[in-house]
Design a protein that fits this description.
By secondary structure, the chain is α+β, with helices and mostly antiparallel strands. The protein has 10 helices and 19 strands. It has helices at about 1-15, 25-35, 95-110, 110-120, 120-140, 155-165, 165-170, 190-215, 235-245, 260-270; strands at about 55-65, 70-75, 80-90, 145-150, 180-185, 185-190, 225-230, 250, 275-280, 280-290, 300-305, 305-320, 325, 335, 345-350, 365-375, 385-390, 395-400, 410-415.
Amino acid sequence: MANVVLMARHSHVQAGIPSNQLTLALEPEVASLYCNTIPLASPDDDGAGVLLHSGAKYVLIDAGGGTIDIIAHEVMNDGSLNEIHQSNGGPWGGTAVDKEYFNFLKDLIGNSVFDNFKKQHMDDYIYLCREFEQKKKTIKPEDVSKVTTPLPGSLKNLFENEKHQDLATSIMSSDRYSEDVTLVSDKIRLDVRIMKGFFAGVLKYIYDYLKLIFSGDSLKDVNTIMMVGGFSESKMLQEMVRNLFPEKTVLVPPQAGLAVLKGAVLFGHNPAVIGHRVCRYSYGVKTSLKFENGKHREDKRKTVGDKDLCVDIFDIHIHRGQSVKLNAKQVPMVYKPQKPGQKTISFKFYSSSECYPMYVTDEGCMELGKITVDVLGESTVDNAVEVSFKFGGTEIRVEAIDKKTGKTTHTKVDFIE
């Protein structure tokens, strides 16, 4: 995600937006914020719904086009939101259904015909995508009647010119589709089982993942699920979630596809409303410790003066899964020079996908940046530098304070959460 954040920043700067006026937000967080500002009602409610109260806990499913992101929040007394479960997700968005639909069309008319259709008739292709997007939202698990989707004349003509065969005749003579698909003028009528089959694969992935995350202790007392994002408007997805969790309240706000956009506006006015976040990575500083036989790897031994040190130690400041208060300095840690006379002390800071990494060279570790502190005056091994992390929005701020002089040095990198 760090590269995506960096690219977004550079793009906005090139577009003329000053970096100090740019705030990046995480989509599921701002969607969650939006849901806390509108009355929500379950499908069985007759009333206008209610606002979430202080202490309410819920899981939010942000089902967009390409991905699904899942986050869990608790509403605090001051109205801020604290993350209570590490956010995660996968490539199970609505475009996975589109892909199955287009694979069906390719099987029906041929890959080359469909590829030429996209190249030569982009306007008709976009129309086809938009019409199918509406069908995705309206198809329901209980539907039994055939489904009608458009087939642009340009696509039909390309098929007949390339295959030298009438498309309707080709479908009727097909062993696979003769009983389930019919061409009527500029439309295709297909058996509802085929349409539902486009959803089967992606719904299975989402089903399995939701079962997995709700099996953990952190979500056992969560009884509300909110669904936002364009794909959340799909009745197929909604019913799958409701059937999986019949004992929970599943809410879909009006215009669920606009939840991220509207939430981003609210977040821009009040970024502090996101109170705590659960870290998906561990963060720390590269350092050296006194070498201990049996504890440290021999290849990490380094002799400095009369001391044997273990180098490349990952000194953990925040571990994966830890809840951190945003825009607040985390507990600082103190470091000292390795030898007298040092003019500068440099700190490299890292992330790790492991909860408790031992060395910065371990698999899953990544260097994020470096900060250098000038040591003024006489430097001794008793000089101390205090290093701390601060997490805010999509950035990490690292601060180093020379305890002797009080001089502060800081840097920041893009948050990779």
